[in-house]
Amino acid sequence: MEIVNIKINVMQRLFNWHTSLKTLIMVFLLAGIVVSCKKSDLNNQPAPEINVEQEALNAARTLENTAAANAANEGRSLNLDEGASERSNQNIVQIVVANPNFAALEAAVLKTGLAGALSNVSASLTVFAPTNSAFAQLPAPFNNASNISAITDAGQISFLTNVLLYHVLGAEVFSNQIANGRSSAVTLKTAGQANDNTLYFSKTFGLIRINGQTDVIAANINASNGVIHAVNKVLLFPTNTIAGIAIANPNFSALVAALVKTNLASVFTGSGDFTVFAPTDAAFADLPAPFNNAANITAISSQAQIDALSNILRYHVVASRNFAWDLGILRSITTLANTPNNKVTTILGYNIGFVKGNANNNFATANPADILATNGVIQVVNKVLLP
Questions:
Q1: Tens digits of per-residue pLDDT, 208-218?
Q2: If you write DSSP's letter for every residue of 95-133 in order, what string do you get?
Q3: Location of each CATH 2.30.180.10 domain in the chain
Q4: Calpha distance 305→381 (Å, rounded)
Q5: CATH T-level fold of 239-381
Q6: With 50 as the cut, is the pLDDT of residue 374 above it?
Q7: Per residue in 189-241, pLDDT tens?
């Protein structure tokens, strides 16, 4: 993957601007503290302070001990022969058909005409098999066996075919062959755009998550022509770039304006492999003018402010995919911002994440997390990260 290296050398002006920004932010913080104290005095009850870092750490350490067990408990209800050491005499399709928990998957395989390929005796496949409850999270007509069987629209059948192929690897991969940490594998789906046929694995605390939010809940179910891993969500391939997702979301108007103002928008419209911690409009609103909304950002004419804004934006970008399950416990991640202040600190969560900049007093929360794009992943954060 091509890694974009952006270098901007305006350190003196940047230092001056950052000093002003930090001063303004400190004034605002002090003003907030004074107001808070006055309110507390009136009520004779000091307002409790929420320690986001401690709560996130506690939650992460709990997950360290419970995540894999919770997934295994969910898988046990499927009545599958998880982790069987001997090869079954049934092929992949026969195992799916025999288990009522895969009724929707069976209907999808039949509707798309993939039963022959998945029962091929000479094949050696890996299938990530969504359960009925996984399909139930999709909109109709893809949400259950009955609706899937009734599909007649050619476009919907084509889409469903691509979705199923996105769950299949062309070689056997058992759970112990998936590396700890981050890894990826190309599926049998034909690539329409860059990376839209690739699965991204996050293996942490013994739990394998795919594309950020799908759990392997029953692994290594042996078939005569491959292996099945049951999953609790249907895997949907990305269809848009990071820039396209941001432009389509009105909550990112300030971010889009900042990307355009700093000439960084084109970085996220093409190929790549990025993590973007994307501040919402509400996050930008906490900054002093002219950085507090899209209109003010668009009107900036000072080159020093544009350069500083560019560095702040690049401080939100990592040149690889990091899902929430990859963020570790107080992990230090290098961003594309200017050195030496170019690292953020992160804490993982289950469908949520936490990140803090060097100059931030508290952790920002990534929620929603793991928005998959063709050129990376977006983590929506509620604070602007400051280097």
A1: 999 999 999 99
A2: HHHH-GGGHHHHHHHHHHT-HHHHT-TT--EEEEEE-HH
A3: 67-231, 239-381
A4: 22
A5: FAS1 domain (2.30.180)
A6: yes
A7: 999 988 999 999 999 999 999 999 999 999 999 999 999 999 999 999 999 99
Residues 124, 210, 382: CA angle, nearest 5 degrees: 165
Written as six digits, the tokens of 134 are 């996984």
Torsions phi, psi of 334, nearest 5?
-85, 130
Q: Which amino acid is at 352?
A: I
CA distance 150 to 379: 37
Report d(CA 300, CA 295) in Å as an integer: 9
The neighbouring-strand residues paired with 259 are none
**Confidence (pLDDT) at 100:** 96
Residues shown for the chain: 387
> Mean of the per-residue pLDDT values for the chain?
89
Both tokens assigned to 323: 């899902």
Question: How far is the C-alpha of 134 from the C-alpha of 225, rounded, in Å?
Answer: 24
- Report the topology of domain 67-231: FAS1 domain (2.30.180)
**pLDDT tens for each residue of 40-69:** 443 445 444 458 899 999 999 999 999 999
Per-residue pLDDT for 8 more than 50?
A: no
**Burial classification of residue 96, based on how many CB atoms lie within 10 Å of its CB (0-12 exposed, 13-18 middle, 19 or more buried):** buried
Specify the pTM.
Answer: 0.85
**Tokens describing residue 119:** 């029962």
Please report the pLDDT score of residue 83 as a whole number: 55
Which residue from 316, 342, 331 is spatially nearest to 262, judged by alpha carbons?
316
Residue 373, CA distances (Å) to 198, 269, 272, 274, 323 in order: 11, 10, 10, 9, 12
Helices 11-43 and 303-314 cross at an angle (nearest 10°) of: 70
DSSP string, 313-382: HHTTEESS---GGGSTEEEEEE-SSPSSS-EEEEE--SS-EEEE-TT-SSPEEE-S--EEETTEEEEEES
Q: Residue 45 has which token pair?
A: 């009850």
What single letter denotes the amino acid at residue 95? I
